[in-house]
Design a protein that fits this description.
0% of the residues lie in helices and 30% in strands. By secondary structure, the chain is mainly β. A hairpin with a 4-residue loop joins strand 5 and strand 6.
């Protein structure tokens, strides 16, 4: 069955060591980072994020910029929601995405920062089949769905000459069950299993600028 394009960001699939993700705050799977209240770019559920450095304010996260990871910057993790004091609603709210406004004070961001995490992500074109296993890949960010908050990030096609420090490493195509959209690894837009490659807990490069 030919796949259809429907990118959904990076959804956690498990861990490299087979352990079950615990999703505890500051545990092995989900850490509480911060988004500056004035950061005006939407971050979707399943988007890559990076730490800000070299510009104000430092120490916060921002949405990954596709193409920025050529060999310089590091992923903090994958964004899975946030909590903040809503300026408009006058109360504490929890959201599966950051809409880019409406916070009074810092935004508490929930980020999968487990360096051993595995993720499912749809190929931006492809197909990305077994022959791509072990190669590094960047992403195509897409536009956050403002109705559902879902990421539209997809996986760029890697090549043997891809830089060594792109954000993800390909582990292979997802092919089961065969009737699910994305699980045909012979056509474009197939689902791919990846893990972090250049991530803050895995290497020592510049975090961002």
């Amino acid at each position: 069955m030919a796949n259809t394009a429907g990118p959904f960001g990076a959804l956690q699939w498990g861990t490299v060591n087979g352990a079950t993700p615990n999703f505890m705050q500051w545990g092995s799977a989900t850490a509480a980072f911060r988004i500056a209240s004035g950061y005006g770019t939407a971050i979707g559920f399943g988007d890559l994020v990076t730490l800000v450095a070299g510009s104000s304010p430092t120490g916060y996260i921002q949405r990954w910029i596709a193409g920025d990871g050529s060999a310089t910057y590091q992923v903090a993790g994958v964004f899975y929601g946030c909590a903040y004091n809503s300026t408009g609603q006058k109360k504490r709210v929890w959201n599966n995405w950051w809409p880019g406004s409406d916070a009074t004070g810092d935004v508490e961001a929930y980020v999968c920062a487990d360096p051993s995490a595995l993720f499912m992500i749809q190929a931006n074109s492809g197909p990305i089949d077994q022959t791509y296993t072990g190669l590094t890949a960047d992403v195509v960010m897409g536009t956050v769905n403002t109705t559902t908050g879902q990421s539209a990030m997809s996986l760029a096609t890697p090549s043997a000459s891809s830089p060594a420090n792109l954000p993800f490493k390909v582990l292979g195509p997802i092919t089961a069950p065969p009737s699910v959209n994305g699980n045909d690894d012979t056509t474009a837009y197939n689902n791919v299993l990846v893990t972090f490659n250049n991530q803050i807990f895995k290497s020592l490069l510049t975090i961002h600028s």
